[in-house]
Amino acid sequence: MKLDNMIEGRLIKRYKRFLADVELADGTQVTAHCPNTGSMKHCAEPGSRVWLQDSGNPKRKYPLGWELVEVDQQYLCCINTGRANHLIREGIESGVISELQGYDSIRAEVKYGENSRIDLLLEGEGKPLTYVEIKNLTLLEDEGWGSFPDAVTTRGAKHLQELMAMVEQGHRAVLLFCVPHEGIEKARPADQIDPKYGQLLREAAAAGVEVLAYGASLSPTDVRISHPVPVAL
């Protein structure tokens, strides 16, 4: 996924969940849209290098959108959670995500469960319907561990229950962590943040929900799914 019209700066602060103040190289201070509703733990430290995308639309209240951050002064990370579904779809279509090959079609945002929409529905002749729920994982902890979630998630728990229901109905269900963070080498549930989610994730895996994670290669102008990340439950 190409990232065009990128502008580098330094993060001053992130606030009100959707806003971030950034100082550009020429000293100008701007307010950018923050496309991430999570806690962004370890990804929103003041002084970090960040990259904003210019939408080119002066009619928008915040024409600049925050896309990337440099974590711990060494690891690039894409904080735009809206990119995750597109990145994973690209990873499937390019053949990088080997576990999800051989399907005839990929549909997005298909209704299922209880007033929910599955991120991707894969269909192919002779294959079960495959429901793919995508979660963005950017919380880096010690020794290369990445954990999900970075805040308590009742919505995430609901999605796990719906995936288990799909397995019970004879379909294939996959929880796929998109890991656009150079410092994360392995993934696990964040039991210290949301122990109920961690327990439910293990129950889902035991019930037949497949749990996968894929990392990305990143630059200030390009993000692409590139490699599997081992998951420890």
Helices and strands in order, then pairings?
Layout (H helix, E strand, L loop, with lengths): L5 E10 L3 E6 L4 E5 L15 E6 L9 E8 L3 E4 L5 H10 L11 E8 L3 E8 L6 E7 L2 E2 L4 E4 L5 H15 L3 E8 L6 E4 L5 H12 L3 E10 L2 E7 L5
Parallel strand pairs: 9-12, 11-13, 12-14
Antiparallel strand pairs: 1-2, 1-4, 2-3, 4-5, 5-6, 7-8, 8-9, 10-11, 14-15
Helix pairs in contact: 2-3
Written description of the protein model:
The protein is of the alpha+beta class and 233 residues long. The protein contains three helices and 15 strands. It has helices spanning 84-93, 154-168, 195-206; strands spanning 6-15, 19-24, 29-33, 49-54, 64-71, 75-78, 105-112, 116-123, 130-136, 139-140, 145-148, 172-179, 186-189, 210-219, 222-228. Strands 3-2-1-4-5-6 form a six-stranded antiparallel β-sheet, with no helix packed on it. A hairpin with a 3-residue loop joins strand 7 and strand 8 (116-123). Helix 2 (154-168) packs parallel to helix 3. It is globular and about 60 Å long. The protein starts with 5 loop residues before the first strand and ends in a 5-residue tail after the last strand. The mean pLDDT is 97.
